[in-house]
Amino acid sequence: MATVPGGVVASLSRRHDVLLTLLCFVVCCGIGFQSWTAMRLTGFDLGIFDQAVRAYAHFELPRSPIKNVHHEFPPGFSLLGDHFTPALALLAPLYWLWDDPRVLVLAQAALFAAGVPVVRRIARHCFAPAGPPPPHRSPSRSPCAGRRTSPGWCTPWGGRSSTPRTTASMRSPSRSLSPS
After folding, report:
1. Structural domain includes residue 130
2. 148 lies in the same domain as 121
3. Looking at residue 144, what is its pLDDT?
4. Given a cut of 50, is residue 176 above it in pLDDT?
5. Residue 135, domain member (yes or no)
6. Mean pLDDT value of segment 123-127
7. 95 contacts 54 by C-beta, under 8 angstroms
8. In terms of C-beta density within 10 A (0-12 exposed, 13-18 middle, 19 or more buried), how is residue 127 classed?
9. pLDDT at 169 > cutoff 60
10. What is the mean pLDDT of residues 83-112?
11. 75 shares a domain with 49
C-alpha cells in the first residue's frame, strides 16, 4: 500500500469538509425554499420567530401577536417572558439586509451546515479503524497507555479495539493484557 504524506490527507479532509458543508447548505436551502414556495412551512413557528427577529431588528422587545392569541397571553406580552433565545437577537442584522422570513430559512440552513465539520470529525475519531499503531508512534503513547481501561477495549499493542472481548477470550493467557 502506498503511503500518503499527512499534509495531503489533511488537505483532502479539509476539502471534503468544505464540500460536504456546502452540499448540506444547498440541500437545506433547497428543501426550505421548496417548502416556502409550496406553502408547506409551519406558519405558526415561522411567524413567531419572524416577528421576534423583526422586533430585535427594530431595537424593540420581541413580541408576537400570533403567540399571544394562541397561548392567550395578554396583548404586548414579550417573548422574553416565555423563552429567552439570544440567537434570535444575533439574526437581527440579517433583517437589516433582507426583511423577509426566508432569511430564517437561510439562517437555519447555514447553522445546520456549520455542524457538518464537527460531526464529521467526531465520526472520524469514533469510527477510526482499529489496528496496530503507525510505525512512528510508540505503544507507550497510545490512547490506552497509563489508563485503567477494560481489557476488551485495548489491544495488546496499546491501541483501541473495534469490539470488546468476550469473557472467554479475556481469560485466555495468550490474549491477556495484564502483566505476567
Report:
1. no
2. no
3. 54
4. no
5. no
6. 84
7. yes
8. exposed
9. no
10. 91
11. yes
Compute the C-alpha angle 21/24/25, nearest 5°: 85
Amino acid at 40: R
C-alpha cell at position 47: 411567524
Percent of the chain with pLDDT over 90: 31
DSSP conformation class of 135: T
Dihedral of CA 130/132/137/139: which sign?
Answer: positive
- In a domain? residue 134: no
Using CA atoms in the order 151, 154, 155, 157, what is the torsion angle rounded to 10 degrees?
-120
Strand partners, 28: none
Claim to verify: residue 116 and residue 180 sit in the same structural domain: no
10: nearest Cα among 18, 78, 105: 18
d(CA 141, CA 159): 9
pLDDT of residue 137: 52
Q: Which amino acid is at 58?
A: H
Distant-in-sequence, close-in-space partners of 31: CB < 8 Å, separation ≥ 6: none
